[in-house]
Amino acid sequence: MEVKGKIIAVLPEISGTSKAGNPWKKREYVLETLENYPKKVHFDFFGERADQYPLNVGDTITLSFDIESREYNGRWFTGIRGWKAEKADAAMAGMPVPPAQPIPASAYPGAGAPAAPQAPAPFPGGDGTEDLPF
Fold first, then answer.
1. Positive or negative: CA dihedral 49, 54, 57, 63
2. CA–CA separation, 38 vs 98, rounded Å?
3. Which residues contact 42 (CB under 8 A, 6 or more apart)?
4. Which residues lie closer than 8 Å to 12 by C-beta, 6 or more apart?
5. CATH number where 18 lies
6. Structure pTM?
């Protein structure tokens, strides 16, 4: 899934050691969508992706993510786990820009020809002698 938005908060990095003795870390962010009615979305990058996608407040990104739910002590928790973030500036940098070319005047309708005066159209259904259209 994907969502586009602007980073409005960068939360402190969380790290620890798993039961197996492996170190882990997680970076959390809050994104505000670019819609008429913006929504705030809390997401994180886990493991090596935490360092792979450093984000700052004010960055406009397209986030690719998965939604995960898990049960703990009889309660369910849902999280958004990011797996890729593309900054808007980087996405635009790879797009080709066509060269600017002037548009000839002949491309516009009526260019170069004087406009012909038009007589006002008579009111439909009337003989044109009345002041009121009804």
1. negative
2. 33
3. 28, 29, 30, 80
4. none
5. 2.40.50.140
6. 0.64
